[in-house]
TrEMBL record:
Keyword Transcription attributed: yes
Species of the source: Streptomyces gamaensis
Protein name: MerR family transcriptional regulator
Gene3D superfamilies (alphabetical): 1.10.1660.10, Antibiotic binding domain of TipA-like multidrug resistance regulators
Domain HTH merR-type intervals: 2-71
Length: 254
C-alpha cells in the first residue's frame, strides 16, 4: 500500500513542503513519483519519517538524523533508545509539573486565606543549601571581603526572613526551569531578566563582579549539594543557570 504526499502530511502533521525538503536533501525519498509529479510513500517511508520526527523532538539535527538512519542500525534498537530517552524526558517533566503544581496550590491557599501562606517544608526543594564548615572556610579564605558582607547580612535576618528568602529562591529556580524546558536560549531577554532577579538576590549578601558571578554559576554545577538542589527541580538546570549567569556577567557586569 502507498500513500500520497498529501496523505502523509495529513497523518503526520508535517507539511508537504517539509516532506519535499526531506526528499531534496536525501533524508526521506518517496517510494516513487507518479506521472503527475506527486510523491508516494510506502510503509518503510512512514517508519523512517517516524524516526525522523522522534529524533527532531529530541533536538537532533537533520544531518545527524540522516547519518543515523543511513548507518543501517537495527531499527528496533534505535526505537528502544528513543523510547528510553522519551520516558526519561517524561519523568523529568512530570517532576517539574509536580513541583510547580505544589507551589501553585500552596500559594493559592495563602491567597484564599488572605495571608502569606508559607511553603511547607521548603527544605525538600532546597536541602543542603547552607554551606558546610569546609565550604565556609574556603569562601572566607578566597573572598574575605565578600564573606564578611554575607555574614553581616545573614546576622540581621530573622528565621522568617530566611524562610521567605528560600521561598523566593525556589520560585526563581522554578521559573528558570520553565524557560529551560521550553527551550528558551540563555541569552533571551526574558531569561536575562530572571538572572537579574537572581543577581539582585545575591547582592543582598555580597556584590560579585563579573568573574565572581561566573564563578558562582560554576560552583552551582561543581558543588554536589548545590547541583542536587537544581536537579531536584529539573535535570540540567544547574548548567542552564550557570550559562545564563555567564551571559549576564559578560554583558552586564564586565
Amino acid at each position: 500500500m502507498a500513500w500520497s504526499i498529501a496523505d502523509v502530511a495529513r497523518m503526520s502533521g508535517v507539511t508537504s513542503r517539509t516532506l519535499r525538503h526531506y526528499d531534496e536533501i536525501g533524508l526521506l525519498p518517496p517510494a516513487w513519483i507518479g506521472s503527475n509529479g506527486h510523491r508516494y510513500y510506502e510503509e518503510a517511508g512512514l517508519l523512517r519519517l517516524q524516526q525522523i520526527l522522534l529524533m527532531r523532538e529530541l533536538g537532533v539535527g537533520l544531518r545527524e538524523i540522516r547519518a543515523v538512519l543511513d548507518s543501517q542500525v537495527d531499527q528496533v534498537a534505535v526505537l528502544r533508545e528513543h523510547h528510553r530517552r522519551l520516558l526519561a524526558e517524561r519523568n523529568r517533566l512530570e517532576t517539574l509539573a509536580r513541583t510547580v503544581g505544589r507551589t501553585i496550590a500552596e500559594l493559592e491557599e495563602g491567597r484564599e486565606t488572605k495571608g502569606m501562606k508559607k511553603i511547607n517544608r521548603p527544605e525538600n526543594l532546597f536541602e543542603g543549601f547552607e554551606l558546610s564548615a569546609e565550604d565556609e572556610a574556603e569562601v572566607r579564605e578566597r573572598w574575605p571581603k565578600h564573606w564578611e558582607e554575607s555574614r553581616q547580612a545573614t546576622q540581621g535576618m530573622t528565621a522568617d526572613d530566611m524562610e521567605q528568602w528560600q521561598r523566593d529562591v525556589t520560585a526563581q529556580m522554578i521559573r528558570m526551569a520553565e524557560f529551560m524546558v521550553a527551550g528558551t536560549p540563555v541569552d533571551d531577554p526574558a531569561v536575562q531578566a530572571e538572572v537579574d532577579v537572581h543577581y539582585r538576590s545575591v547582592c543582598r549578601f555580597w556584590t560579585p563582579n563579573a568573574e565572581a558571578y561566573k564563578g558562582l554559576g560554576q560552583h552551582y554545577v561543581d558543588e554536589p549539594r548545590f547541583r542536587a538542589n537544581y536537579e531536584k527541580i529539573a535535570e540540567g538546570l544547574a548548567e542552564y543557570q550557570r550559562d545564563a549567569m555567564a551571559v549576564y556577567a559578560g554583558t552586564r557586569l564586565s
